[in-house]
Structures are given as C-alpha cells and as structure tokens.
Write a structure and sequence with these properties.
The protein has two domains: 2-78 and 326-350, no CATH class; 82-324, von Willebrand factor, type A domain (Rossmann fold, 3-Layer(aba) Sandwich). The longest helix has 34 residues, at 39-72. It has helices spanning 14-33, 39-72, 107-121, 147-155, 165-176, 184-189, 200-203, 208-211, 244-253, 284-293, 304-319, 328-350; strands at residues 2-3, 75-82, 86-93, 126-133, 137-144, 228-234, 258-263, 269-272, 277-280, 298-301, 320-326. The chain is α/β, with parallel strands linked by helices. A six-stranded mixed sheet has the order 5-4-3-6-7-10, with helices on both faces. The chain has a three-stranded antiparallel sheet with strand order 1-2-11. Strands 8-9 form a two-stranded antiparallel ribbon. It is elongated. Helix 9 (244-253) links the parallel strand 6 (228-234) and strand 7.
Length: 354
C-alpha cells in the first residue's frame, strides 16, 4: 500500500497528544473524587464494567480519528478486480509446421480445439478478433462478441507455407488499435523487409506522402494499455516478414501486452512426404522476448492438454485484472462506522447525546 498524499500522515502525531490529554483529564477527575466521603462507595458505584463503558466510546473515537487521517493521505493498493470491457486479438500460426503429429492428432487440430474452448469460456465483457499468419497475415475475424462467428473463423484455418510471426503481430496490433496509424502495407509488404532485415525504426516509419499528416507519437509505458491485449500462438521459427522483436517494440511503445504461447514438443518434429520434408522446432527464445518486451507472459504448451490449460489460465487473466486503486473511501467508511458505534454506545450507556 502506498499513499498519494503521504505528508498528511504527520497528523498522526496528534494521536499520542490526544491520548495524553485524555489521561490528564482522568487524573483530574480522580483528584475531584477525593472530596467524596468514602472512596469505597465511589468504586463500588463505578465497578469494573462501568470503567470499560466509560473508556470504550473515547477509544473508538480515537481509532476513528486515526483511520480518518490515513484516509486523508489517500492510500492506494493493488487489488484484483473484474476487468473492464476489452478487446482481445488472437494471432494463430497456420504455417505448414502445424501439420506435425508430435501433438496428437496433429498440431493444427489440437490448436483449433483449444482455441474454440477458449472462445467459449471468454468473459462476456471481452470482444475477440482472430488473425492467422503463415507467409503473410490475414484477418480471419474482425473483433466481435459473437462466439459462433469466432468458432466458425477458427474452423476456416488453412495451412500455408512460411512463417511470418512479425506480420501476424503487426496485423493484430492494427486490429486492436485501428487509429494508431500503423502502415501495414509498408511494414508487411515493403521489399525492404526481408527474412534477414527489419527494425523497430523502420516498422514505425510513415510513408513520405503521409509524413506531414501523421501525428507526433509519444511512447507510453509497456503494458499500460488496459483496454485490450494480443495472444500470439506459434510453433516454429520466423522464416519471412518483419522481425517479431521489432514488432513487439512497436506494441510495447503503445502499451499493448502480447501474451505468447509456444506450441509443440521442444525436441521438434520432421514433417513431409516422399517429395519434400523439413524439420520444425519451437523458437521459445523469440516468443519469450516478445512477451517480456511488452510486459506480458510466455506460456509453453507441449501437448493438447497443456494448450487447453494455457488458454484456461488466460481466460481467468482477462476476466480479472490487478489494478492499483485508491482505497481512501474504505478507510473513510471505517472511520464513520466507528464514530456511529461510539455515539450509539454513549447514548445507550449514559443516556446522553454524544
């Protein structure tokens, strides 16, 4: 817990002073009691229960004052709350490496089943869009609340050659932030982007014709965008298109979190037939870097069951989120409650208004 106005906590020094003043007042009353003919009669009249009754209301008021001072300092804490309405973009690798059978019956079938279950379990406050990527990236379903449309979109996945992880991330980012001015044509199809090139600066470079019209962009802290996120699933290494690390930096500058899921056995698998074959292996290093750069998390799924569990944990993550929230109202309510209790006890026990 931290305080937005911590200087006001100095007022807590008044509490010991008030306690001392109360003790002095009690001593004066004791001196006055000497004037009675018999102290035994006074003690008998007061009794132990009467002493507790006499001190309890002032103690409650003192506690209420302490809590009220803490409330004035505006305390805040990180608490878990239901997430606000948000948009989620799911980017799924549909390269031919998803034909591998190291995950039964094969990677693409297992992934489709897990994604469909993920769609069905999503909180109702979450819209979803789906992007598939292989040699390039395509929007399979624009963001929608209709779960049937999303399930149908997953069923339409078609495997293609190559793996452009960076393209999948960029198209997903453009779907999540349509007004961000991301030049997809230049970033994804520019001849300057080869399988060996591409950097963060060039990804965010506007066309010359649009340079004057483009608003000046100021980066924000990674993970600060709370209205949406991207979940990217891949089973292999990038073979073409923009650098996914550079694309991740672009997302991070806009505060967008990219949760990555590595799918398939870490040993890899050989796929093909009599005419062609190639070895596919998971690129965990890149996926971990993408998640770390954007302030998100990386998940590994080596089996179909693992993948379902990953998506279940993501469902909980998007249903609930941790936020730093000011909780001064709770302290104020507590102080008011203690004062009300003290007043009620005073009226009940001493038949006078507090």
């Amino acid at each position: 817990m931290r305080f937005l106005w911590p200087d006001l906590l100095w007022l807590l020094l008044l509490i010991p002073a008030l306690v001392a003043a109360y003790v002095v007042a009690l001593r004066r009353k004791k001196k006055a009691a000497v004037n009675y003919a018999s102290l035994m009669l006074v003690r008998g009249a007061i009794g132990r229960g009467q002493a507790i009754r006499r001190h309890l209301p002032p103690a409650l008021i003192l506690a209420a004052l302490t809590i009220a001072i803490v409330a004035m300092a505006r305390p805040s804490a990180t608490i878990t709350l239901p997430s606000e309405y948000m948009t989620l973009i799911l980017a799924v690798d549909v390269s031919r490496s998803m034909m591998a059978t190291d995950v039964a019956p094969n990677r693409i079938t297992a992934a489709q089943a897990a994604v469909k279950a993920f769609v069905e379990d999503l909180p109702r406050n979450v819209r979803m869009g789906i992007v598939s990527f292989a040699g390039t990236a395509n929007v399979v379903q624009t963001p929608t609340e209709n779960r049937d449309d999303l399930v149908a979109a997953v069923s339409r996945f078609q495997l293609q050659r190559a793996t452009a992880t960076g393209s999948g991330l960029l198209v997903s980012l453009a779907q999540l932030l349509p007004d961000a001015g991301i030049d997809l044509e230049a970033a994804v199809f520019d001849s300057g982007f080869s399988r060996y090139g591409g950097g963060a600066a060039s990804l965010d470079r506007p066309r010359k014709a649009d340079k004057a019209a483009k608003k000046e962009f100021t980066p924000v802290p990674p993970g600060s965008f709370t209205s949406g996120a991207i979940v990217l699933l891949s089973d292999g290494r990038r073979t073409t298109g923009p650098d996914p690390i550079a694309a991740a930096k672009l997302a991070a500058d806009r505060g967008v979190r990219v949760y990555t899921v590595g799918f398939g056995t870490k040993e890899g698998s050989m796929i093909g037939d009599e005419n062609w074959s190639f070895y596919v292996r998971l690129d965990e290093e890149t996926l971990k870097s993408v998640a770390a750069i954007t302030g998100a998390e990386y998940f590994y799924a080596g089996t179909a069951d693992d993948l379902r569990k990953v998506y279940q944990s993501l469902t909980l993550k998007f249903g609930l989120e941790r936020k730093e929230t000011e909780i001064s109202a709770l302290f104020s309510a507590g102080a008011a409650l203690l004062i009300a209790i003290a007043a009620a006890l005073s009226l009940l026990w001493f038949h006078r208004r507090s």
